[in-house]
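Tokens in:
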């Protein structure tokens, strides 16, 4: 779902040369402040599909910005079933839900080869004293996460299955466009089952809805690649 990964892993991250830094932290830093952030950020070893970044109950230590790849977050219902709570793309930040109680309340797992930058939270708080604009950046990211959660609740509470699917595809499209996607193709790293779980429908329903939209000329399906042919109509369905 993302641009081509770098071929070489370095433990240190260079925020100044990072192609997605305007999408995560730091948003407004430059000059000396950016150098200070470089000293703080750590690049973790690349993750393979199925590797966990953190699990429910893990102690909160850091925020994580996805430099390349994608992840899903999920929790468990009272009955012990998996409930997908989000899909996270390049440039997005994970871990903010754990700040309040100092432990993670969901699991985060890689959907494909993924690389993340780790931002130790204690060091981040210290840096805020030297770089006041950093707090504003954190607030913006928190606001974005709250907005996404609200969108999810509204989508599940008062929409048809077709609207849910349209909004899901449109949301992915808009997020990928912000990341410099050059065309209207969505390379889905998540399974139909994960999408259905997230939208509150059976995975067979996801397949039927996609096939229906293809028949209407809204999109074209090629394995996990979905090429959006009529974004205007997709938006009309989404409402």
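Residues out:
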């Amino acid at each position: 779902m993302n641009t081509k990964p770098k071929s070489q892993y370095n433990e240190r991250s260079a925020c100044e040369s990072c192609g997605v830094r305007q999408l995560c932290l730091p948003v407004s830093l430059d000059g000396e402040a950016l150098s200070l952030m470089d000293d703080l950020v750590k690049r973790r070893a690349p993750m393979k599909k199925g590797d966990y970044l953190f699990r429910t109950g893990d102690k909160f230590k850091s925020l994580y910005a996805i430099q390349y790849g994608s992840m899903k977050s999920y929790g468990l219902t009272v009955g012990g079933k998996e409930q997908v709570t989000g899909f996270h793309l390049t440039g997005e930040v994970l871990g903010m839900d754990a700040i309040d109680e100092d432990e993670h309340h969901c699991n985060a797992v890689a959907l494909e080869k993924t690389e993340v930058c780790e931002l130790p939270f204690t060091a981040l708080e210290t840096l805020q004293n030297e770089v006041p604009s950093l707090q504003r950046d954190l607030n913006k990211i928190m606001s974005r996460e709250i907005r996404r959660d609200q969108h999810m609740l509204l989508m599940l509470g008062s929409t048809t299955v077709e609207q849910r699917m349209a909004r899901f595809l449109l949301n992915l499209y808009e997020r990928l466009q912000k990341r410099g996607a050059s065309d209207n193709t969505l390379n889905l790293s998540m399974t139909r089952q994960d999408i259905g779980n997230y939208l509150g429908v059976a995975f067979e329903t996801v397949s039927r809805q996609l096939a229906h939209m293809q028949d209407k000329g809204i999109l074209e399906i090629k394995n996990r690649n979905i090429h959006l042919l009529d974004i205007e109509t997709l938006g009309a369905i989404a409402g």
